[in-house]
Amino acid sequence: MAEKLHEIHVEVATEYLPDQSEPAAARYVFAYTITITNTGGVPAQLISRHWIITDADGKVQEVRGLGVVGHQPLLKPGEHFEYTSGSALATPVGTMKGSYQMVAEDGTQFEAPIPEFVLSMPRTLH
């Protein structure tokens, strides 16, 4: 099987931020750290992002924008870029998924899917 030229691997780690959240006001804030690795065979640049954020009530927010945290990283094969961002939900649990729009050095445009991940407030014991 031929090597995939245009392939990006996305990993996500999430964290609930109690100091920024206000459960009484239906505001739950989460941080997520994303590592984007170019597992393909040609350099590729992240141009834009598209997020679909869904809370536990089924309310969906779509977010589109250029780059990530103000960057449009160019990744050579094997290189990775890591960043942390955040999201606020009206419920203690939700999901995020989406895609990064990439352009390879050879001019090919392709999407790197971001697998769905869960944002969840940890259960607290009193």
From TrEMBL:
SUPFAM superfamilies: ApaG-like. It comes from the Bacteria. Residues 2-126 form the ApaG domain. Gene3D superfamilies: ApaG domain. GO terms for biological process: error-free translesion synthesis. InterPro entries: ApaG_domain, ApaG_sf, Uncharacterised_ApaG. NCBIfam families: PRK05461.1. This is Protein ApaG. It comes from Sulfurisoma sediminicola.
